[in-house]
Amino acid sequence: MASNIEQSWQDIQVALRDRVGERTYGLWLAPLRCVGLDGDTLVLAGPVEISAWASSRYGGALREASAAVLGREVTVAVEADTERAANRLAPAQAPPELPTAASDPNPKYTFEQFVIGESNHLAHAAALAVAELPGQAYNPLFIYGPPGLGKTHLLHAIANYVRAFGGGLSVRCSTAEEFTNSFLAALASRDTERFKSRFRGVDVLLIDDVQFLERKARSEEELFHTFNALHELGSQLVVSSDRLPADLAGIEERLRERFAGGLVTDITRPDRGTRLAILRKRATYDGVRITDEALGVIADGVTTNVRALEGALIRVVALGSLERRPLDASLAADVLARQGFATKAHAEVDVPRIQAVACAHFGVERSALLSRSRAADVAWARQAAMYLARELTDHSLPQIGREFANRDHTTVLHACRRVAGEITTNARALADVEALTAKLSS
Questions:
Q1: pLDDT tens digits for 342-369?
Q2: SS3 223
Q3: Is the full-model pTM beyond 0.85?
C-alpha cells in the first residue's frame, strides 16, 4: 500500500507542476511531503512558513491533481507540524521515507516552448543537436550562465525530445543536489550498485546546477567516474552551471577538464525583443489576455532573467484578479513598483548595497546581519535582504549564501520562502519590502 501511495504522490507532483507552473510549484508546493492516505484524506506535511498559504491558495489545485491521479475525490490536509500530521495515520499506514531519486523532466519544458534570441541561440542549437544525435554531436555539452535564463529549460527539453523521438534511448535528468543526495543515500544503505546502475546505465545523462558539487569531494569523485563510464559507452552527458568550468574553483581540476573537453556554450541576459517574446509566449500558453503595453512595461522593468520575467507576469495577473483590475500598463507599473521590479533596481543593485540599505532601514549593524544571531529583528532584516538579493540580482542561492557569511543555500531558500509568504499576508512585511525597494531604486 505504501509503495502505491508513494508512486501516486510522485504522479500528483507531476500533475501539480502542470497546473500551477514550475515557478509556483517550486516556491510553494515542492517542499510538501506526503505523509499518507487516511481514508479519503491525503495528508501532507510542510514547513510552518508555507503550509497555511499552500493549503488556502493552492488547495483547489491539490485536490484536482489528487483526484486526477487517484481516480476519486479526496480531501487534502496540509499540516504544518510533521509529527502532528503523522499521528493522523495508524503506524501501519505511514509510508517509508521517500527515496532520493532524479527528477522526471518537466513536460512544459520543450524546444517548442523555448524562445530563441541573440542571447541563447547558440546554446539552443547545441542542445537540439545533442537531442537529435546523442553521443555524436557534442559530448559533453556544457551550458553556463546566470540563474533563470533557460539552462534548466534546455536540459529538460533535451530529455523530453529523447524520450519522444529517441527510439527507446534511456535518459535521466537530475540536479547536482539530487545526484549528491542519491549518492549519500546509497552509501548509507550500502547499495551503491543500484545507484551506479541508475546513473551510469543510461544513454543520456543531464546534470543541472553542477556548481552545487563544489567542495563535495566524494560526490565529485563519483561524478568523475560516472563521466568516464558514460564516455566509454558512448553515452551523452549534458551539464549546466552558473559559471565556466575554469571558474568552478571548488571542483577538482580533472573534473573541470572533463567539462571543458566538449562544447562549452553560454546563455546571457535576453534583450528587450526576446523578453517581449518570452512574455507573449507565456501569456498565450496560460491563456492570459494582457495588453501589449503591459507586457512592454514588464519587459522594460525586468531585465535580469526569464524567471523574474515570468514571476512579474504572474504577479500582474494575480493582482488583477484579486483587485478586479484590467491587465494593462498601469497595473503592470504598479506591480513592478510595489514588488521590487523597478528598472533602476535591476540595473544597479548588488548584494553589498542591499545589505547596507537593509541595515540602515532596520537599524541593524552589518556585523549583526552577517552573524549567527537569531534575534527576531536581526533575522527578519537578514531574510529580507536575502529575498531582495534573490529578486534583484543574478546571483544563485549558493552565491547569495556566500555573501551572507558563507551560509548554506538552503538557508537562503528558507528566507526567500518566508518573506514571500509574509508579504502576501502581513502588511508590515510588505511595507518593509516596498520601502527597501524604493531606497534601492533611488
A1: 544 444 578 999 999 999 999 999 999 9
A2: helix
A3: no
CA distance 57 to 183: 35
Q: What is the pLDDT of residues 220-252, one digit of tens each?
A: 999 999 999 998 889 999 999 988 998 888 888
Q: Which CATH architecture has domain 121-266?
A: 3-Layer(aba) Sandwich (3.40)
Q: Domain map of the chain by residue range?
A: 2-93, 121-266, 272-344, 349-441
Region class of 133: left (phi > 0), else alpha (psi between -120 and 50), else beta = beta
In three-state form (DSSP H/G/I as H, E/B as E, the rest C), the secondary structure along 272-314 is: HHHHHHHHHHHHHHHCCCCCHHHHHHHHHHCCCCHHHHHHHHH
* Spatial distance between the Cα atoms of 28 and 39, rounded to a whole number of angstroms: 25
From residue 394, how far is each of 78, 135, 347, 348, 397 by CA, in Å?
A: 33, 32, 11, 12, 10
Q: 144 and 243 in contact (C-beta within 8 Å)?
A: yes
| Local structure of 141: helix, strand or coil | strand
108 Cβ contact list (under 8 Å, min separation 6): 17, 18, 21, 22
Residue that has been written with the C-alpha cell 546571457 in this structure: 268
Distance of alpha carbon 135 from alpha carbon 125, whole angstroms: 15
Domain spanning 2-93: CATH 3.30.300.180: yes
For domain 272-344, the question of CATH label 1.10.8.60 is answered with yes
Residue 96 has pLDDT above 70, yes or no: no
Angstrom distances, CA of residue 320 to CA of 295, 336, 419, 434: 14, 13, 22, 19
Q: At what angle do helices 292-301 and 306-323 cross, to 10 degrees?
A: 130
> Cα–Cα distance between 128 and 112 in angstroms, integer?
11
DSSP string for 339-379: HT--HHHHHH--HHHHHHHHHHHHT--HHHHTS----HHHH
For residue 245, is the peptide bond before it cis, meaning its omega torsion is within 30 degrees of 0? Answer: no
Neighbouring C-beta atoms of residue 332, cutoff 10 Å: 28
Q: Report the distance separating Cα 435 and Cα 288, nearest Å.
A: 30
Q: Report residue 258 as a C-alpha cell.
A: 572533463
Strands 33-38 and 41-45: antiparallel
What class, spelled out in words, does domain 349-441 have in CATH?
Answer: mainly alpha
Residue indicated by cell numbers 546546477: 209
